[in-house]
Structure formats: C-alpha cells, structure tokens
Design brief:
Layout: E1 4-5, E2 18-21, E3 45-48, E4 54-56, E5 59-60, H1 62-70, H2 89-110, E6 117-121, H3 127-135, E7 139-143, H4 147-156, E8 162-163, E9 177-183, H5 192-202, E10 203-214, H6 223-226, E11 234-235, H7 238-246, E12 250-256, E13 266-273, H8 287-309, H9 312-338, H10 340-352
This protein binds zinc ion.
Amino acid sequence: MSNLELAPCPLCGSYSNFEDININCKDEHISNYGSLYAGKQKSEWKICFQCGFVHQNPRPSKDDLNQFYLNSSYHSNKIPEFYFLENGKHYVDFARWYYLEKIQYAIANANLKGLGKVFDIGSGHGGVLKIFSQDLGWQVYGVEPDRHLFDYATNHLGITSIQNTILDSNTEIGDQVDLVFSNHAFEHFADLDQVMLGIQKILKPGGYVFTAVPTYYQNRSDLSLQWMNSAHYSMFTDKSLNQLFAKYGFEEVTHTYRGWSKEIDDLWHLAQFTGTSVESISFYEDSSKVRNYINITNPVNSIINYPIYSNYAKRIQTINILKQRLRFLKRNLKLLFTSPKLAIANIKEKLFNKS
Ligand SMILES: [Zn+2]
C-alpha cells in the first residue's frame, strides 16, 4: 500500500473539485520513493477547479516528503568523480555555464548594484553560491537538505554558510539578504507556505526572489508534460507563482518563458517583497482553459517546435563551436597576408594543441 493522501489545493486551499490530468509519460523517478508510492506506476496530477493550479494529488504527507529529502534519498546517484578534481574546478565551470545567465537575469532585473547578500534555496552542490561568492564577491547563505550535496559544497567548495536542512519559518541565518535565489526547487517543496514564511524572514524589506521552475505553459517540447512526475508536486505558471507570492506580500517584477538558450520549458520569475496586499484571487486561472492547454495546445506546441528545439543545448554548443572556428579562420586568413609566419604558427597550434 502506498502512503499517499489527498491534500487540499496547495495554493487556494480548496478541498474538493479537482480534475484529473491524463499523463502518458513513464514516471522515471517513482522507484526512488520506496514505500511512499508502493504499488503505483506513476504519480497522479490534478487541476484545481477553483484556481486552476496544476499539482500532484494525492501525494505523500508534508512530513514524509521533508523526511525523504532529509534522508538524502532524492539524489541517490553518487556525485560524479570529476566534481572532485582540482578543488571542484570542473564542476564550478559547469555551474557557471548552467547558472550564470539566470544569476545575471536576477541581478539585472532587480537592479542590484554592488556587493550584495544572497540565499539559495536547495543549494545542491553549491555552484550558484560559489559563483556569487567567488565571481561576484557576494556574501552567501543557503539550505540543502541532502547530506551528500551539503558535504560536497562545504568540504570541497569551501562554502561554510549552508545549513543542512529545509527552509521554513524556524530558519535562522542571523542576517537578511537582498536576493533569494531558487533554481528548480519550488516544484519540489512539500510545504509552500512554510517556505514563503522562511523567505519573508531572511529577506530584507524590498528584497527580491528569483525563481526558475519547470512548466507546462508556453512549452516547446513534451518535456513539459514529463515534468509531471513523482519527483515534483507543483507545476507553476507565472500566474500561479504570483498567486502564491501575493499571499505573502510579493509583487512580480518580471518573468520569461524564453530565458535560457540551453534548456527549454522552464519559467524564470522575479518578485519583490513590497508588503503590498494584492488579492491572490486575481491570479486564479480558469481550470477549463488550463485543461485545454494541457490536452491540446501543449501537445501541438511540442509537435511544431520539436524539430527546432529537441537537443537544444547541444545544438547551441555545436553552433558556437562552428562560429569560433569560422572566426579563427577569418582572422588567420587575413594574417596570412601581413604576417604569414604568425598565421602558420597559429594554425599549427590549433591543429596540434586542441583547445
Ligand atoms: Zn486551487
């Protein structure tokens, strides 16, 4: 028997009137959850009739889920060996490639100038905080429930200000930050209200929250439906994020569904803690429109966009390499006329010293 319970809508609190979503994707994660989903092949997803929020329901209890993360069960795979080479240099290079655009988006749109303080929710291996501290000189804080990831960030990257726990109203950092950062974390949270109370506590008045989450909306591939699996509990749109944030005095600064050229079907969102009371009801979505979007618009988007956006990150990488080679060729062809020796030396080096 599984250990799941029917929960009220995590956003509007409605206890009934949920509509089933039929997901035809295989659930790759469910076996990691052991007894929590015993006897189940995949998770069940619902649209809230009242506010249109797409969420997993029934689901494990908040306590069971938090305990699952704290038992370090979610990241069951070992940390890759190359993460340990040269004091984590290869991992940090990867992290810079993966996170830097999101960090720049958050800082630029929040108009944060100079050295600031940041808190990363679900700081993982510590890549985001390493970039903020090493590259930007910021003071960094974070939480990471998984012991292995926490140990890596602390012992190998030297970030000693991460707490091995879950963010909630009891979290104490003895400081207040300018920016709370979260990358693919909100969809995992067992208790969204506790996380928001935690954010309110650690953020300066007027501070910002950057959120990147997977989404089914404005999709370009069927990844957007695969996101609805047992590892996720909430599938946000900009409206549903605003519904959550409005309850806690946050207002949207900006959002985009087209932020990253390396990954698709994720939403970037920046909100500011203004303390303004905005009725969260104004962000409710029409559940029948949500249903039609998921059943019709989303699959059509996938079909139309698949030829362009499948393996998008790889394509961008290949195009960049080709561009680099073209630039090199142009430069050295010009050089052949003015300093042929230098041009030949450059070409030789390129051929025999691959970099
Ligand atoms: Zn609802």
